[in-house]
Design brief:
The chain is built from 17 helices and 14 strands. The chain has a seven-stranded mixed beta sheet with strand order 2-8-7-6-5-3-4, with helices on both faces. The protein has a three-stranded antiparallel beta sheet with strand order 9-12-11. Strands 1-10 form a two-stranded parallel ribbon. With 472 residues, the chain is an alpha/beta fold. It binds ligand F0G. Homotetramer. It catalyses: L-tryptophan + H2O = indole + pyruvate + NH4(+). This is Tryptophanase. Pfam families: Beta_elim_lyase.
């Protein structure tokens, strides 16, 4: 069927969750009650929910069936071994700890790696720095809670929506190495490779870049953690764009990528397609000591290490989801759906980051140039979109970035983006067309959209619970 211009969804839909349409007057009241913050809207008031692709997508028939095989034994469960064996086959990693979600893995490996560096290399906590192409919020949060300064060493082009590049998620290797030398390698307890790079718009990291990062890390004896939420989408992009891998399977690319890291931390709610779940895995005996320390901490924080944060059925479902999420026809469909949305928005005059894996990132700064960053143009756009069509999207800009903890001033943000995150196999092409039409309508009245001012600003992680009024 390759000769067809548009291939439809490679699946049938057999479960229905009804959603209600609402009136503009109803939505007006709802968004005001939510303090002009879409996070505070009730799900029943949302027509199309693009807040996240995390745990919000459809699951496959085989995943659902696998749930019934669950062995709920407290220790040494058969379902644990089903999951650990799958991890070994796909990623080549010897040791597995299941966690309740991605941040469950972070709360374990981060303090363990810091203590190990302290013990073995004399890390000075007052000089501790960790590096990433871009830390996801919770990875940044756990690093900071443990006293580390975070440094994102992304490429210059990463946040420039005017520039196209095959691998906008790549590390800037010079900045990485310079940063390590400056901090003193002993003060760098880990490097995190985020694939795909969520914050830059689901942009991929190349295999060549992963190899080069690992070479730098090995030179300075620093462990590399693969933050793996969207590992399959990253492999798909590598297959499309990196000459060496053009004829490789997704499986082969994935295996090769993970040779260039030591630890796998995963929010399994994305590419592994489960509503809840995570993984913390270790490559081989070189990190066996880290695995042991993580097992100990896991008992206190998540659960006994052979179930961690998951019930037996959920471990079986995850083992199947890891494989189902790597199907090439499925990945092609998913990436094409996001591209369709981005192209439609661009055709309607809405500037976006080049299409990434899981979301369209609209450049709200360009759409609403009359709203300064301090009045959160992307949050204002989110409210306008909800009022227009009941669509919920999420700000990725100054509001999310927050303040400098030392000075209290707003941190300068590289771009004011609105993320339209596409849940897996949940919305159809008609939904994409509806979103594009909603944007075209919002754009017509863009000049009338007002910036926002806080009526309540929490001290940390403010974007989740802040409340606003329109700025005058
Ligand atoms: N790492 C990345 C790259 C992520 O995107 C996320 C979550 C996490 C770690 C944390 O995992 O939520 O399972 O605890 N991202 C979601 C999002 C929330 O909307 O992008 P978690």
């Amino acid at each position: 069927m390759e000769h067809f211009k548009h291939l439809p969804e490679p699946f049938r839909i057999r479960v229905i969750e009804p959603v209600a349409r609402t009136t503009r007057a109803y939505r007006e009241q709802a968004i005001v009650q939510a303090g002009l913050n879409p996070f505070l809207l009730d799900s029943r008031d949302v027509f199309i929910d693009l807040l996240t692709d995390s745990g919000t997508g459809a699951v496959t028939q085989d995943m659902q069936a696998a749930m019934l095989r669950g062995d709920e034994a407290y220790s040494g469960s058969r379902s644990y071994y089903a999951l650990a064996d799958t991890v070994k086959e796909i990623f080549g990693y010897a040791y597995t700890i299941p966690t309740h979600q991605g941040r469950g893995a972070e709360q374990i490996y981060i303090p363990v790696l810091i203590r190990k560096r302290e013990r073995e290399k004399g890390l000075d906590r007052s000089k501790m720095v960790v590096f990433s192409n871009y830390f996801f919020d919770t990875t940044q949060g756990h690093s900071q809670l443990n006293g580390a300064a975070v440094c994102n060493v992304h490429t210059q082009a990463a946040f420039d929506t005017g520039v196209k590049h095959d691998f906008k998620g790549n590390f800037d290797l010079d900045k990485l190495e310079q940063g390590i030398v400056q901090a003193g390698a002993q003060n760098v307890p880990y490097i995190v490779c985020t694939i795909t790079c969520n914050s830059a718009g689901g942009q991929p990291v190349s295999l060549a870049n992963l190899r080069a990062v690992y070479a730098v890390a090995q030179k300075y004896d620093i462990p590399v953690v693969m933050d793996s939420a969207r590992f399959a989408e990253n492999a798909y992009f590598i297959r499309q764009r990196e000459a060496e891998c053009r004829d490789w399977s997704i499986e082969k690319i994935t295996y090769e990528c993970y040779r260039h890291a030591d630890i796998l931390a995963m929010s399994a709610k994305k590419d592994a397609m489960v509503p809840m779940g995570g993984l913390l895995c270790f490559k081989d005996e070189t990190v066996a000591d880290v695995y042991q320390d993580c097992r100990t901490l896991c008992v206190a924080q998540e659960g006994f290490p052979t179930y961690g944060g998951l019930e037996g059925g959920a471990m079986e479902r995850l083992a199947v989801g890891l494989r189902d999420g790597m199907r090439e026809d499925w990945l092609a469909y998913r990436i094409n759906q996001v591209e369709y949305l981005v192209n439609g928005l661009e055709a309607a005059g809405v500037v976006c980051q080049q299409p990434g894996g899981h979301a369209a990132f609209v450049d709200a700064g360009k759409l609403l140039p009359h709203i300064p960053p301090g009045q959160f143009p992307a949050q204002a756009l989110a409210c306008a979109l909800y009022r227009e069509a009941g669509i919920r999207a999420v700000e990725i800009g100054s509001l999310l970035l927050g303040r400098n903890p030392k000075t209290g001033g707003q941190l300068p943000c590289p771009a004011e983006l609105l993320r339209l995150t596409v849940p897996r196999a949940t919305y159809t092409q008609t939904h994409m067309d509806f979103i594009i039409e909603a944007f075209a309508r919002v754009r017509e009245r863009a000049a009338d959209i007002k910036g926002l001012a806080f009526t309540y600003e929490p001290p940390v992680l403010r974007h989740f619970t802040a409340r606003f009024r329109e700025a005058v």
